[in-house]
Design brief:
Layout (H helix, E strand, L loop, with lengths): L12 H13 L4 H21 L2 H31 L5 H44 L10
Protein backbone atom coordinates (compact mmCIF):
# COMPACT_ATOMS: atom_id res chain seq x y z
CA UNK A 1 0.00 0.00 0.00
CA UNK A 2 1.59 3.28 -1.07
CA UNK A 3 1.20 6.65 0.63
CA UNK A 4 -1.30 7.82 -2.01
CA UNK A 5 -3.54 4.76 -1.41
CA UNK A 6 -3.86 5.36 2.33
CA UNK A 7 -6.89 7.22 3.59
CA UNK A 8 -6.13 10.54 5.27
CA UNK A 9 -5.78 10.33 9.05
CA UNK A 10 -8.98 11.14 10.90
CA UNK A 11 -9.14 14.75 12.03
CA UNK A 12 -10.20 15.57 15.51
CA UNK A 13 -12.85 18.06 16.39
CA UNK A 14 -10.26 20.65 17.38
CA UNK A 15 -8.39 20.34 14.08
CA UNK A 16 -11.61 20.67 12.08
CA UNK A 17 -12.68 23.67 14.15
CA UNK A 18 -9.34 25.42 13.67
CA UNK A 19 -9.41 24.76 9.93
CA UNK A 20 -12.93 26.20 9.70
CA UNK A 21 -11.89 29.24 11.74
CA UNK A 22 -8.89 29.78 9.48
CA UNK A 23 -11.12 29.58 6.41
CA UNK A 24 -13.69 31.98 7.87
CA UNK A 25 -11.08 34.60 8.83
CA UNK A 26 -8.76 34.27 5.81
CA UNK A 27 -8.48 37.68 4.06
CA UNK A 28 -9.24 36.17 0.63
CA UNK A 29 -12.64 34.74 1.60
CA UNK A 30 -15.78 36.87 1.79
CA UNK A 31 -16.24 36.08 5.49
CA UNK A 32 -12.60 36.95 6.13
CA UNK A 33 -13.00 40.33 4.44
CA UNK A 34 -16.13 41.06 6.49
CA UNK A 35 -14.29 39.98 9.65
CA UNK A 36 -11.32 42.25 8.85
CA UNK A 37 -13.55 45.30 8.21
CA UNK A 38 -15.55 44.64 11.40
CA UNK A 39 -12.38 44.24 13.43
CA UNK A 40 -10.94 47.51 12.10
CA UNK A 41 -14.16 49.44 12.81
CA UNK A 42 -14.50 47.94 16.27
CA UNK A 43 -10.89 48.84 17.03
CA UNK A 44 -11.50 52.47 16.02
CA UNK A 45 -14.68 52.67 18.14
CA UNK A 46 -13.02 51.11 21.18
CA UNK A 47 -10.04 53.45 20.84
CA UNK A 48 -12.36 56.48 20.88
CA UNK A 49 -14.30 55.09 23.86
CA UNK A 50 -11.17 54.27 25.86
CA UNK A 51 -9.89 57.83 25.41
CA UNK A 52 -13.22 59.41 26.36
CA UNK A 53 -13.13 61.38 29.65
CA UNK A 54 -16.67 60.25 30.44
CA UNK A 55 -15.73 56.58 30.07
CA UNK A 56 -12.55 57.04 32.12
CA UNK A 57 -14.49 58.85 34.87
CA UNK A 58 -17.21 56.17 34.92
CA UNK A 59 -14.76 53.26 34.95
CA UNK A 60 -12.73 54.95 37.71
CA UNK A 61 -15.88 55.38 39.78
CA UNK A 62 -16.85 51.72 39.32
CA UNK A 63 -13.36 50.53 40.27
CA UNK A 64 -13.24 52.81 43.32
CA UNK A 65 -16.64 51.59 44.51
CA UNK A 66 -15.57 47.98 44.07
CA UNK A 67 -12.35 48.50 46.02
CA UNK A 68 -14.18 50.38 48.79
CA UNK A 69 -16.69 47.54 49.05
CA UNK A 70 -13.83 45.03 49.34
CA UNK A 71 -12.19 47.13 52.08
CA UNK A 72 -15.47 47.35 54.02
CA UNK A 73 -16.05 43.60 53.64
CA UNK A 74 -12.54 42.75 54.87
CA UNK A 75 -12.95 45.12 57.81
CA UNK A 76 -16.27 43.50 58.72
CA UNK A 77 -14.75 40.01 58.55
CA UNK A 78 -11.74 41.04 60.66
CA UNK A 79 -14.02 42.65 63.27
CA UNK A 80 -16.15 39.50 63.40
CA UNK A 81 -13.03 37.34 63.84
CA UNK A 82 -11.76 39.63 66.62
CA UNK A 83 -15.14 39.34 68.33
CA UNK A 84 -14.85 35.54 68.15
CA UNK A 85 -11.22 35.78 69.38
CA UNK A 86 -9.93 34.17 66.19
CA UNK A 87 -6.85 35.36 64.29
CA UNK A 88 -7.45 37.35 61.12
CA UNK A 89 -5.85 36.59 57.79
CA UNK A 90 -3.48 39.54 58.08
CA UNK A 91 -2.42 38.44 61.58
CA UNK A 92 -1.75 34.91 60.33
CA UNK A 93 0.30 36.30 57.43
CA UNK A 94 2.29 38.51 59.82
CA UNK A 95 2.97 35.50 62.06
CA UNK A 96 4.00 33.45 59.05
CA UNK A 97 6.47 36.16 58.02
CA UNK A 98 7.87 36.40 61.55
CA UNK A 99 8.19 32.62 61.75
CA UNK A 100 10.02 32.57 58.41
CA UNK A 101 12.46 35.23 59.67
CA UNK A 102 13.02 33.31 62.93
CA UNK A 103 13.62 30.13 60.94
CA UNK A 104 16.22 31.94 58.81
CA UNK A 105 17.93 33.25 61.94
CA UNK A 106 17.97 29.77 63.53
CA UNK A 107 19.54 28.34 60.37
CA UNK A 108 22.20 31.08 60.41
CA UNK A 109 22.87 30.45 64.12
CA UNK A 110 23.18 26.72 63.44
CA UNK A 111 25.77 27.40 60.74
CA UNK A 112 27.71 29.67 63.08
CA UNK A 113 27.63 27.04 65.85
CA UNK A 114 29.00 24.43 63.45
CA UNK A 115 31.94 26.72 62.70
CA UNK A 116 32.55 27.30 66.43
CA UNK A 117 32.42 23.55 67.16
CA UNK A 118 34.90 22.88 64.35
CA UNK A 119 37.25 25.52 65.75
CA UNK A 120 36.96 24.03 69.26
CA UNK A 121 37.74 20.54 67.94
CA UNK A 122 40.82 21.89 66.18
CA UNK A 123 41.92 23.70 69.36
CA UNK A 124 41.42 20.54 71.45
CA UNK A 125 43.40 18.49 68.94
CA UNK A 126 46.20 21.04 69.02
CA UNK A 127 46.19 21.07 72.85
CA UNK A 128 46.37 17.25 72.93
CA UNK A 129 49.29 17.28 70.51
CA UNK A 130 51.09 19.86 72.63
CA UNK A 131 50.43 17.83 75.80
CA UNK A 132 51.70 14.58 74.27
CA UNK A 133 54.97 16.08 73.07
CA UNK A 134 57.80 15.94 75.61
CA UNK A 135 58.83 19.29 76.96
CA UNK A 136 61.89 20.70 75.30
CA UNK A 137 65.07 20.02 77.25
CA UNK A 138 67.60 22.69 77.83
CA UNK A 139 70.81 21.48 76.17
CA UNK A 140 72.81 24.51 77.15
CA UNK A 141 73.85 22.80 80.38
CA UNK A 142 72.67 25.43 82.73
Amino acid sequence: MSDSDRPPPPRGLLARGLKLLGHLTHPETRTGQVFTRAEQRLTRVLTRVSESPTYLRASGTVLRQGLNARIRRNSFVENALHTLRLPTTSEVENLRDQLRRVNDQVEALGSQLEVVVDLLHRQEAADERDASEPPPTDKSGA
